[in-house]
């Protein structure tokens, strides 16, 4: 009896639907991804072997090589509430429109006496060209910024231990110590004695005590 031949069917697959889904997913991730905000100034940080990642809810105090100080508030921080506190404490006289415009800033680096005028000016000066937050012994405005941050988080019943975990200092390796000391003084004046430093990660040196330490 002759062998029955099974007709061979085409193995061609229509990839149109698959390509549509791939491009839809690609478009979604491109549009939904939030870009990292630009740094106020270029800072060359010292290196360390720490592998901790900066959280999105962090407050980053940046100290540039020329001694200027800037404050950056992370995406998840109550920025608008903090700015209202600063306006109240320092009597800046900002209205709701001023506060709304101020809240769009990603980096804060002006003396308080220049804030109102800059918000109502049509000229937009980039952070890298701003004077920075004064932190000298005669006028340390970082104390007021930290006070506002601390008070807002206290109202939200966030413990000080948790607040200390998101207060970060990013200093240039060439910055002078007295400038860094003034930032520490601002924290101390607000009874905050712990903070974290942002550094450039490097591999653990082979043969060191940390390298030979077993992972927990």
Give the tags.
216 residues, alpha/beta, 5-stranded mixed β-sheet, two-stranded parallel sheet, 7 strands, 38% helix, 11% strand, elongated
Task: Write a structural description.
The protein is 38% helix and 11% strand. It is an alpha/beta fold and 216 residues long. The chain has one domain. A 5-stranded mixed beta sheet has the order 4-3-2-5-6. Helix 2 crosses helix 5 (142-155) and helix 5 runs parallel beside helix 7 (177-189). The chain is elongated and about 105 Å long. The model has no long low-confidence stretch (mean pLDDT 82).
The percent range for helix content is 25-40%
Poorly predicted ranges: none
Q: What is the CA-CA span between the terminal residues?
A: 73 Å
Compute the number of strand runs.
Answer: 7
Quaternary structure type: single chain
Radius of gyration in whole Å, from Cα? 26 Å
- From N to C, what is the helix and strand string? HEEEHHEHHHEHEEH
| Coarse shape | elongated
Strand residue percentage: 5-15%
Query: Quick one: biggest sheet?
Result: 5 strands, mixed
Q: Mean pLDDT, nearest integer?
A: 82
Q: How many domains, as an integer?
A: 1
């Amino acid at each position: 009896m002759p062998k029955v031949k099974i007709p061979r069917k085409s193995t061609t697959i229509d990839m149109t639907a698959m390509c549509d889904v791939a491009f839809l997913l690609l478009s979604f991730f491109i549009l939904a991804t939030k870009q990292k905000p630009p740094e106020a100034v270029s800072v060359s940080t010292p290196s360390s072997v720490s592998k901790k990642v900066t959280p999105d809810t962090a407050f980053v105090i940046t100290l540039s090589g020329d001694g200027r100080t800037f404050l950056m508030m992370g995406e998840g921080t109550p920025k608008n509430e903090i700015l209202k506190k600063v306006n109240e404490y320092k009597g800046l006289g900002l209205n709701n429109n001023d506060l709304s415009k101020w809240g769009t800033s990603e980096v804060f680096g002006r003396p308080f006496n220049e804030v109102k005028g800059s918000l109502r000016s049509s000229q937009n000066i980039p952070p890298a060209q701003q004077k920075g937050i004064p932190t000298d012994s005669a006028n340390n405005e970082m104390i007021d910024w930290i006070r506002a941050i601390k008070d807002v988080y206290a109202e939200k019943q966030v413990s000080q231990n948790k607040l200390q975990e998101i207060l970060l200092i990013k200093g240039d390796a060439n910055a002078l110590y007295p400038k860094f000391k003034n930032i520490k003084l601002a924290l101390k004046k607000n009874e905050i004695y712990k903070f974290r430093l942002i550094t450039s990660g490097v591999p653990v040196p082979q043969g060191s005590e940390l390298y030979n330490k077993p992972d927990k």
